[in-house]
Design a protein that fits this description.
single chain, about 90 residues, alpha/beta, Rossmann fold, three-stranded parallel β-sheet, two-stranded antiparallel ribbon, 4 helices, 5 strands
Length: about 90
């Protein structure tokens, strides 16, 4: 949102996007959901994304690994395909 990325992808006939970065449960998830909604063939590289521990409203600590894995599970096969860096390298070879 607020960028011309979609136009650039469409102008260059790009149909597949590969997402990496921080944080899995915020920026990465939003980008993937938008890409999925726009119809791109979207991949998230599980070992090239991460998040941080969070403290809930009740003061409970939620560990980054659990948040990361849960977010990947909610995105997989709904908005994106979750792959590893090794699988990505093989896919691009």
């Amino acid at each position: 949102m607020g960028t011309d990325l979609k136009r650039q992808l469409d102008d260059n006939d790009i149909k597949k996007v590969i997402i990496i970065g921080l944080t899995t449960d915020h920026c990465v998830s939003t980008t993937i959901r938008m890409a999925g909604n726009y119809g791109y063939d979207t991949y998230i590289v599980s070992d090239a994304t991460a998040t941080f521990d969070k403290i809930g409203a009740d003061g409970q600590r939620y560990f980054a690994e659990i948040i990361h894995e849960t977010t990947l599970a909610s995105l997989h096969e709904e908005f994106a395909t979750v792959i590893t860096t090794e699988a990505l390298i093989n896919m691009l070879s």
